[in-house]
Amino acid sequence: MTGAPLPPPGGDKAGTSAPIRTTCAYCGVGCGILATPTGERSADIKGDPDHPANAGKLCSKGTHLGETIGLEGRLLTPMIGRRAASWDAALGLVARRFRETIAQHGPNSVAFYVSGQLLTEDYYVANKLMKGFIGAANIDTNSRLCMASAVAGHVRAFGEDIVPASYDDLDAADLIVLVGSNAAWCHPIVYQRIRARCDAGAKLVVIDPRRTETADEADLHLSIRPGTDVALMNGLLAWCRDAGVVDHAYLARHVATPDDFWDRCAGGSDLWSVARVCDVPPQELRRFFELFAATPKTVTMFSQGVNQSLAGTDQVNAIINLHLATGRIGKPGAAPFSITGQPNAMGGREVGGLASSLAAHMDFTLANVARVGRFWAAPNMATRPGLKAVDLFRELGQGRIKAIWIMATNPAVSMPDAGRVREALADCPFVVVSDVVDTTDTSVHAHVRLPAAAWGEKDGTVTNSDRTVSRQRAFMAAPGEARPDWWIVTQVARRMGWKTAFPYDRPAEIWREHCRLSAYENDGARLFALPGHAAKGNAEYDAMVPFRWGGTPFSDGRFPTPDGRARLIPVAQKPVAAPLGQWPMTLNTGRYRDHWHTMTRTGLSPRLARHREEPLVEVHPDDASACGIVDGDLARVTTPQGSSLFRATVVTSQRAGEVFVPIHWTDRTATGGRAGRLPRPLADPVSGQPGFKSTPARIDRVETAWRGFIIVRGQLATPPDCLWATRVAVPHGSAWEMAGTGDADALDASLPKGQRIEAIDAARGSRRVAILDGGRLRAVLFVTRDGSLPPRDWLVAQLGEAIAAPTLLAGRAAGVQVDRGPIVCACFDVGLKTILAAIADQHLADVPAIGAALGAGTNCGSCRPALAKLLATEGSTHAA
Description:
The longest helix is centred in the first third of the chain and has 19 residues, at about 85-105. The chain has 29 helices and 34 strands.
């Protein structure tokens, strides 16, 4: 690799067997991890008991990180088209094409689309290259899809993007309000902290249209109509004012209140009007209002249900208004708390990874542009905000963006109206993708693919939801030609002509520059500042322990605004359109407990795959009955943007008239389940964040003639060609669930070669095939038209056996076989039927008893609500 020196190892202990302190690769909780290498591509993963975010606890995803660090599916060499290339050739081509595009069409003809999966150092270099040297601000991040409304709300109210809370506030709160957050699934470690506080006497209120696992354990659940959060919060604000809870002295000293604020927020804010708009019983609404008014120590934690809305910024400000007006901010146990989705969404915000910000919490005022330009010695500073994600891909589709570099994200799946995003990528003259994974729905459109280092192979920092900065450290060598993202961007910048401006040889150098910029000409006007870290050497960087910047924001009543006062922002509830005509339903999208984003990591873990093996559309029984859908049917969800297939699950936890689908499935893992095809490409006018939570939709039953499955050692060379096929990882291989309308014999084309045994039952319309190789099982295919299919566990276990069992085609061992049922506890691999049997046989009466008997619920705790529900159901059954 001529002319492109290797970056230094990421950590002093990489490749040794000593535990390495690092940070989890998943959500914004930012849990500390002790990773102990046990082989070249294996490690023992435990929670770090000394990390302030998790104190040694890990959720199911973090617990099983060790199952995701192999080389399956990895991109290991630069690729130009379909040809492997040297780093010199690939980097040279990227630099040349970007230079030529800028020369011909101007700096606004190119764009970067980056990710909360990047480390702060990666983010910093990419932002500096685009905004300081290319001269446009067309760098945006997939954090736009999850946290942009929180950023905009913070800036409007506080003058800066400051989260005015920490996890410690949860320990001090007497009331915790979760708005649009299924924390039990999406932030399990934070949720266990909430549960611990509730066990000590605090109350929990959950505001969510769906009755989630989090809502099941709440003292009060308000199942509001989607998009009515402003009405709810304005109604609560009016109640607090009438109850004498508004802190007028605090407002007078510390908050700027527009003259017409109370009038503009008052419309329709009486209890009965709010109950009607939000579609909740007035008595439940009154109970919430009284509880909030009576509890000064309140933390209101909000997430995607608030942010992912066409009025997301207003919803954020409605929450902040409440806390400012009642003086519940800057005090222990009292704060509005935005909790982020990605591991470094906050770090990206700090360095300017969003197109709407510059760097170090600075915006695009003339003074800030000049300041950053001086610091960077930048020849061509961007002077105005760039294209936000939805607009960026719209401009790409219209041909105004001629070259795009996508780093560590999969917009062909995750963006709204993802079908159009694919078309835009396919038509773009030059697409570069830096990724860990060889093939994604996005990278199939790339002209150049660059192999990036993965978690466990790279060094840097991340900032979690409560502003705690932690180190990610390498404990494995990067495989093949994979390199850190900061290095890749630095090499391109040098080849574009800016060698001296990008002199970095290690991430510590970038970190120090980032710290210096945060403090540069900063007299305290910006709270974000890291001056004490700018002078730390490489050894101190390597030894960095987690720290939270900013202390306790606003405890002195001062805010980073010109007059030092916060702002009350008048917001009003916008009309919520009722579903009409061919779109009678409202579509909501979100996450599953044990999967992450587009499953490029969690999809590698056999244990994580078991919780939800297929993408399900959740539908209320009334709606299912009206559509002729029964549980387990295939159903097509259609919106004006597109359609996709899902397996239907009929649940009372879903509001009537609404359906929910997960975001994780891609063309690599299923023929359906493509949630990104469905939402509208519309965004909040302030934040630019798309509205994923309230898309007009319809749902229709899909008839099938047969169903079946394939279990294979390794991977299928050819995916099944049928209407419905979804793949999950299993030990030693993969499993496909399938259904179709045509000839099921066509599935044989997907089976590997080998000795074939087969059984056909024409009366039941079933066929069973096993493929053997040297006496070992290579694959099985089971298909039925109107009969039953056996449980999969025993057949999956046969993949690891040296000699295949003689009862393969029976689908079970000789004698009685225990069916574990669907996995409830992923941490300890405990199935539903195992739990129910233990409850009945051992007379288990509570969740701790189940934990003592089976281990379920004793690690991350995210299955505890499900265990409690099983206990309640069994108790009701026995009572009946």
